[in-house]
Amino acid sequence: MSKIVILGAGISGHVAAAHLRRKLSKQHEVLVVSPNSNYQWIPSNIWVGIGRMKSEEILFPLQPLYKKKGIGYKQAKVSTFHPEGDSETEKPFVRVEYVAGEKKGQTEKVTYDYLINATGPKLAFDMTEGLNPGTNKAYSVCTYTHAEHAWDALNDLIQQMKQGKKAKILIGTGHAKSTCQGAAFEYILNVEQELRRHNVRDKAEIVWIANEPQLGDFGMDGMLLSYGNNIMKSSEMVEMVFEDRGIKWIIGAGVNKIEDGVAHYETLDGEYNSETYDFAMLIPAFSGHGFKAFDKNNQDITEKLFKGFMIVDADYTPKSYEEWSVQDWPETYQNPSYKNIFAPGIAFAPPHAISKPRVSKNGTSISPSPPRTGMPSGITAKLVADNIIDAINGKNNLQHKGSMGNMGAACIASAGYGMTKGSGISITTFPIVPDYNKYPDTQGRKLSKTFGEIGLAGHWLKLALHYAFIYKAKMRPFWWLIPE
Amino acid sequence: MTRRISKSKRFYMMNPIIQFFKFIYLSIKIMLIVAGGHGGTRKANY
């Protein structure tokens, strides 16, 4: 009998738990440890943030589902890792602290045979002075509660605009090293459409601010994509959309301080500027959780497990941008020191950025961190689950591999909500990490699998995916037929 | 120079009938790309 412990119940942790439970017999234990009581379909947060969806439509409680499916669940957060056990406990374990219920505040050793670290990122609002969701008129859509608060504030502003107030709305990244520009991109287009729906668009100036060196970088060095019969850069596509919607933009901007209605930032040119606003939605930097690890003698071995995020089978040798290779990226997400620990999704430490690093004239690093969104999170979680199942069955060859340099991704970016007035920008990219050796003439990507489409169908597609993935996450009949 | 969305293109983008067929086409195309497999990169002929 094996015990598999999964830390985190986001897209990655939940996918791993679901596949492990389905494919392993009941003699093996699958246990999820998460401080969250609900599963949330994060890509739909933007619709909560414009008041077109309720939180209840994008989440469901984890405990009843896990109980029904035979998956153990502890509402707790991990504090330390002990991959060799300690003087009292022979088996490896993690120490967890309960965050709710009768055991709230109590700690416990949770032993394991295999550990999947799917703790995702820490939303590091504290890395930008004054950036805290709900204060200084700045908000976030990173969680459903943040998105609810954002809608409350935006709705207030819309009501004031209906009374004649002129307003300025600032949306983008809130730190020089933020990632997840895609979520902010979706939100700005949705906000713009909602203002038109409420007949107050003429009262608002909408500004995009981002650490991207050019529009459409998305932390992936941009992309060359096929668009209808044309070939277009992602920067040209985003510029076309922003022009069409009357959205202004500031790029190469590292936001470093937020005051009440003022965002201070530094540009790649080394200038220090500020932008006033009445409502802002700024994506924070992501960081690791600062976990500590100890060996059986209680000596600190954090550097064997963590490099901010968790160390996996990537090549972390420091290299210049010109020397970066697609082969640097991990394939199995296995920790090299402890072979029974894996870190799929956003929990693994990337070997380096994807976008070319850029430094301002003052020496400040201003460039996007690499994105690792829902689809790769699900794919990497499934392959980790499959490798663990193989290992339990006596096959230790890690035959399931999925490098982001040999994996496609679909990004269906909502550009406005509505069955007849909605819009979406459907973008696929293959591979996610550009392979400049294999595809030297098309900026590292396979053009037949890297395309963009704009239109109403994109909105329907995103809505269809919303319902399909919530169906899948609820493990309804034949859920496994829906790909990650 | 910035590309612009023309009137005919906007009609194409927002016409529900055209977009219905586009929805079917995109669903299949994206499914093929997403479900088209993934793998490692460290062997010579991946």
From TrEMBL, chain A:
Cofactor annotation: FAD
GO MF term list: NAD(P)H dehydrogenase (quinone) activity
UniProt-listed Pfam families: Pyr_redox_2 (PF07992)
Keywords of this entry: FAD, Flavoprotein, Oxidoreductase
InterPro entries tied to this protein: FAD/NAD-bd_sf, FAD/NAD-binding_dom, NADH-Q_oxidoreductase
Superkingdom, taxonomy of origin: Bacteria
A Gene Ontology biological process term: aerobic electron transport chain
Keyword Oxidoreductase among record annotations: yes
Name by which UniProt lists this protein: Sulfide-quinone oxidoreductase
Organism: Maribacter orientalis
UniProtKB/TrEMBL annotation, chain B:
Listed transmembrane segments: 20-40
Keyword annotations of the record: Membrane, Transmembrane, Transmembrane helix
Keyword Transmembrane helix among record annotations: yes
Highest taxon listed in the record's lineage: Bacteria
Name under which the protein is recorded: Uncharacterized protein
